[in-house]
Amino acid sequence: MRFSKMYAKTLKETPKDAEVISHQLMLRSGMIKKLASGVYTYLPLGYKALKKVEKITREEMDRAGSQELFMPVLQPAELWKETGRWDAMGPEMMRLKDRHDRDFILGPTHEEVITDIIRNDISSYKSLPLSLYQIQTKFRDERRPRFGLMRGREFLMKDAYSFHANDESLDEEFENMKAAYTRVFERCGLKFRSVEADSGAIGGSGSQEFHVLAESGEDEIIYCNTCGYAANLEKAESVVKEEIVETKEELAEVELKDTPNVAKIDDVCEYFGIPASKTVKAITYMDTLSLKVYMVLQRGDYEINEVKLKNLVDETDLVMLSDADLVAHNLIKGYMGPYNVELGDIILVADESVTKMINHTAGGNKVDTHYVNVNYGRDYTAHIVGDVRSVRAGEGCPRCNEGELESARGIEAGHVFKLGKKYSESMGATYLDENGKTNIMTMGCYGIGVSRTMAAAIEQNNDENGIIWPMSIAPYLVDVIPANIKDADQLGLAEKLYAELNDKNIDTVIDDRKERPGFKFKDADLIGFPIKLIVGRGAKDGLVEVKIRKTNEAFEVKAEEVISFIEELIAKG
Amino acid sequence: MRFSKMYAKTLKETPKDAEVISHQLMLRSGMIKKLASGVYTYLPLGYKALKKVEKITREEMDRAGSQELFMPVLQPAELWKETGRWDAMGPEMMRLKDRHDRDFILGPTHEEVITDIIRNDISSYKSLPLSLYQIQTKFRDERRPRFGLMRGREFLMKDAYSFHANDESLDEEFENMKAAYTRVFERCGLKFRSVEADSGAIGGSGSQEFHVLAESGEDEIIYCNTCGYAANLEKAESVVKEEIVETKEELAEVELKDTPNVAKIDDVCEYFGIPASKTVKAITYMDTLSLKVYMVLQRGDYEINEVKLKNLVDETDLVMLSDADLVAHNLIKGYMGPYNVELGDIILVADESVTKMINHTAGGNKVDTHYVNVNYGRDYTAHIVGDVRSVRAGEGCPRCNEGELESARGIEAGHVFKLGKKYSESMGATYLDENGKTNIMTMGCYGIGVSRTMAAAIEQNNDENGIIWPMSIAPYLVDVIPANIKDADQLGLAEKLYAELNDKNIDTVIDDRKERPGFKFKDADLIGFPIKLIVGRGAKDGLVEVKIRKTNEAFEVKAEEVISFIEELIAKG
């Protein structure tokens, strides 16, 4: 591709509304263009990278024995009513009516459609197991689309679905898919971790996420520095090695203390001269569907994990109470506590840690007051007790009991999940077994965010000059730059090498624009070509320069050897 | 691929609601599955064929210098309001609102989006010409979706758009695209014709359709048996060599005749003993938007071409008057005519041929009556006179004036079109020329129905047993069939040849199912594998049979030579 003809409109300035680096760099390098909030066009350079991620994904899914199909974007409402998701899905699902006033949705996922196909086509155990996948555009009307391709409203997903006669077969496919996903992210040249994730009712190893590691990642993941244990923060457990609580302390009498303007945990600690581990904080939530209100108690130095909380109280959409809601419930912001409180309908929830504390401080339920020497059991009890604590780096590994947990930031790019019979049961996807008996199929589902993986690759690989594409997904691998386009030697040699690289099927650009070399280098670094092949003054002596984007290494190479030199660089990845 | 694992649910019976052969065969061979009216899933076999058409299209567009991008399905209403198409598009355009109540559409085409991109990114003549394409799902809410993939509501298109500084540049790209399209359809192994099509205001060679020839085609195309002239029926012109009208006949007096139960042209001819060329028929239309009513006069042996009529009267949505509408306008069905008629607001339109007739018959405007010896000019005149006649095979070529026109049926699979400044003007896509002056860009657009081409390939290539895929787009090229799977020699040789074909990257299936050979042959013919490689009793002597689906030829070949034999067959195409 000739740069002079290439659709690549690079920008010097960072667009204002781009918050994360991948979004900024993709806009600046002319890879994507916003059409509407959360809706982007992939311009030629961006689409080439996207297609490479797509191709790697397709090859590894094929290799894993999954068969590709292509399901529609438009899905009739009837199928979603069968599974109950027509009502359960909120405004994130995009809905429309056709000219005959029939309800349709734009597929955010395809469990209903694939299960409908399978229940019609498959009837015997002989056809199982079966794994099918597609690479298709998905739609999700995010409340606040942001971060460019990371959280858009229209995005590219690989979604796979497997059907089985029994759990052992599902377990096998689950492992098969984990291996395929590992190959996908490895081939994309990314640093990643697979972590245990929350799987609701199924539990065990039924849900694993693949996170591309990047400091800008939205998610925190926890992993053991000794064994292979890794989980996302919602799912992570730990062993707290060093309990600060002194179990031998005698229970003291509760006292109400005046604490003027001492509302935050830090202030309470300072005021009383105690560690946060001797305080209890109370946070109130309401579920927007059930409308139940919960006061949740946590040890002052621990955080509440809202996913664990949702699972514990069996709610789906918890939000913190607003100031107005607090007033309506006679609760005093900053001074709430479990002792001497008028709960009314409020359900009191305590993290396990709270029940083990001795003589803790708690809000006085009046402005500017706190109780000291409060004790769970003696002074109050909660309606529900359980683990709602966020794990922290430095705590002990719950798996090997030896290692220490570390923490990293990640971008969720893949997810493998044992669905079980949720959809096959409600939609009647059954098969006849060896004995002619009707059984319900067991299912798995497996997703890779193709466009998100592309963005995550940039989040992980960039510097102040631009993108640093991994070789395998770079739109072009080599940028041939004749330093002085008016010099016939330089231009001639550059054109010759460009032709040779094309003959080797290496995706190559020649920067034939009438611009200064510095200008060209800037564009090359912004777009992120892994290799620059600079044909400068050395051309007359048969010498060229190879510069590696990632390491910034530069090599002077003989022109006749440079093609094989580049081939080796590419082979090394 | 092993047939035992392959997702290929073939049906013996033809599904009831499938009217055309491609639809029937794709359902029966398990290539597609209906999800909703006009909305289909591509099952693995069908998707493999579709991807091959897609790949050929992509390669030829790349070769033609067009750059691939990928625009969203969701398009904001604002862009369509700029061009006026938000109002102009009827219920065929699918519309929806997002969670913030903003209007969006599901792209039926992308002129607005691409023009928006270009007006923002391109400002100089130096960046022109520019050609961009995408292969993307389109949405069109057909009033009556039918014919399977031929006229669906969600379908795959390749659409390209070009931008130019002047008409000469557009002309060049137009020819470049025509050549690319020719290569696409040639490589797909299809018999096709490119024909001139109606291009509204632009005229000339500004619009060409590519039709895949098939007797079941919806469109009639006209071509000269001598020169290269070809046009669709709407656009076709002709020279009528032998005028039946005897221009020397004297004008006679108009007479009203009783013609009981003589309402049709054939009956009129029989009743009066005259040829149809001496009669005039009158047909009434109303435009559903302007609500104007037209009475159109045509020579009895000619047909009215509704596209020519629309262009002549400048209307967009003409429909024939219903019986009730006729009554409301005091018109008598079967006995309408231009003489002694109370037209009121009705606009009278005459085909040119009518104005040259002498002493013609026409409806009497009363039940069971006709006038004879009516003459245009003397007895009546029309408000509008023009060519609204459908050309017929057998007439003379208007281009070379020597050949005779022939007719064929086709399926429109491609269209190249000079858009001119329609979108660039309304949306302000301008550039600065060499002199720094602002000019409006000129545009072209170019479409290929990718899914429709796949269906058209089947319409053109099938027999009573099933599909006959062209080599280049067959989901698999070879079906290796061990005749007796329990015979170790046969199975062993079949597996060996299957592995060798895979090593050669030839898409191959081995039918390892425990079924009788006849059963396997039926499936193979239905799915349409171009080559069957049958490993039967000859296996023990090192002989196998190769059967060609298209010609039904069978060859006995030595096992060690069969791979190269098959390679030669494939190379021949």
Automatic annotation (TrEMBL), chains A, B:
Residues 38-470 form the Aminoacyl-transfer RNA synthetases class-II family profile domain. The keyword GTP-binding does not apply. It comes from the Bacteria. It is an enzyme of class 6 (ligase). It catalyses: tRNA(Pro) + L-proline + ATP = L-prolyl-tRNA(Pro) + AMP + diphosphate. GO terms for molecular function: proline-tRNA ligase activity. The keyword Coiled coil applies. Its EC number is 6.1.1.15. Keywords: Aminoacyl-tRNA synthetase, ATP-binding, Coiled coil, Cytoplasm, Ligase, Nucleotide-binding, Protein biosynthesis. Residues 230-257 form a coiled coil. It is found in: Cytoplasm. Its main location: cytoplasm. InterPro entries: aa-tRNA-synt_IIb, aa-tRNA-synth_II, aa-tRNA-synth_II/BPL/LPL, Anticodon-bd, Anticodon-bd_dom_sf, Pro-tRNA-ligase_IIa, Pro-tRNA-synth_IIa_bac-type, Pro-tRNA-Synthase_IIa_type1. Catalyzes the attachment of proline to tRNA(Pro) in a two-step reaction: proline is first activated by ATP to form Pro-AMP and then transferred to the acceptor end of tRNA(Pro). As ProRS can inadvertently accommodate and process non-cognate amino acids such as alanine and cysteine, to avoid such errors it has two additional distinct editing activities against alanine. One activity is designated as 'pretransfer' editing and involves the tRNA(Pro)-independent hydrolysis of activated Ala-AMP. Consists of three domains: the N-terminal catalytic domain, the editing domain and the C-terminal anticodon-binding domain. Homodimer. NCBIfam families: PRK09194.1, proS_fam_II. Belongs to the class-II aminoacyl-tRNA synthetase family. ProS type 1 subfamily. This is Proline--tRNA ligase. The lineage of its organism: Bacteria, Fusobacteriati, Fusobacteriota, Fusobacteriia, Fusobacteriales.
